[in-house]
Amino acid sequence: RTRLTAERARDGMLFVAGTLNAEMYGRGVRPKLPEGFNVRESWKVTADPNAARRRSVYIYAKRNLPYPLLNAFDLPDMNESCARRATTTTAPQALNLLNSEEVLDAAEAFAVAVRNEAASEEAASLVTQAYRRAFGRAPGDEEIEHAVSFLHAQRKRSGHSEGGDPRSAADDANSAFTDFCHALLNSNEFLFVE
């Protein structure tokens, strides 16, 4: 069992979300850095958001400012040669997957893509399509049951739909499904290859 490299994990998230820009060749891109990430070092962000979602191999490599999401997942040190990548499991990796704006945006786009492809808005149909898109397989009955239970619990937790406003209920359902898609992007099945 091997975890995806930093670049493959980011590219996989963008691909599943349907936002990966597969354009080849050309100049490197500078995606947006997290707010307050490094006050001394920075870079001018690529103006076109679509261009900034190119494959990770095209991310500008600045020696003193490695891209944070890639750096958390063992991007090689650019100050010395690297014969072999280290593979670590650390808390910052989990924190990046849970809190990174890029991962949260990918989860939201993933949820929208699944809603556009699913046969219906029924929870089981959405869950099945999300599994197919993320893992390349259909979920088992128990997985569907747990996922639908999670979606209902997340909707109740938000508490907006109790007043009966249909827009709030729809917002709660969308938010719950985005949370589910975020969980799939954080799963071992997504991040590891056997």
List keywords for this structure.
mainly alpha; two-stranded antiparallel sheet; globular; 8 helices; 194 residues
Description:
By secondary structure, this protein is mainly alpha-helical. The protein contains 8 helices and 2 strands. α1 packs parallel to α4 (101-117) and α4 (101-117) crosses α5.
SSE blueprint:
Elements: E1 2-3, H1 6-17, H2 68-72, H3 91-99, H4 101-117, H5 123-135, H6 141-158, H7 166-185, H8 188-191, E2 192-193
Antiparallel strand pairs: 1-2
Helix pairs in contact: 1-4, 4-5, 4-7, 5-6, 5-7, 6-7
Q: Give the overall form.
A: globular
Determine the N-to-C terminus distance: 4 Å
Succession of helices and strands: EHHHHHHHHE
Helix content: 40-55%
